[in-house]
């Protein structure tokens, strides 16, 4: 019975933990290449206000599995996660707008390799 309770408690605590993928997010000040090395290519990218925004989503509905990394001059300057600020929601809306603009104006947007 004690073993069962211990296993149950472990399962409960594990399900409450943050995603290991983004819990160890790169430190502010690292380069884009360091982020790509750590997390791979972002799911989406866009540029506004002179800043590059990279959206990562671990194909999950959990908020902890999403993050937006913001770069200036190729250096990570800000990390935005859901629940930490309303900024994440605003940036996700911006991403959706950029996707719809891209569909309306194909060829006017750069990819990561450009």
Q: Count of helices? A: 4
How are the strands of the biggest sheet laid out side by side? 1-2-3-4
Shape: globular
* Largest pleated sheet: 4 strands, antiparallel
- Our Rg estimate from Cα atoms comes to 17 Å
Compute the number of strand runs: 4
* Helix/sheet category: alpha+beta
The pLDDT mean sits at 73
Write down the oligomeric state.
single chain
- The CATH class designation of the domain at 27-104 is Alpha Beta
- The fraction of residues assigned to DSSP E strands is 15-25%
Low-confidence stretches: 13-20
CATH architecture of the domain at 27-104: 2-Layer Sandwich
Determine the N-to-C terminus distance. 59 Å
Question: Helix share of residues?
Answer: 25-40%
As for the CATH topology of the domain at 27-104, it is: Beta-lactamase Inhibitory Protein, Chain:B, domain 1
Q: Can you write the helix and strand succession as a string? A: HHHEEEEH
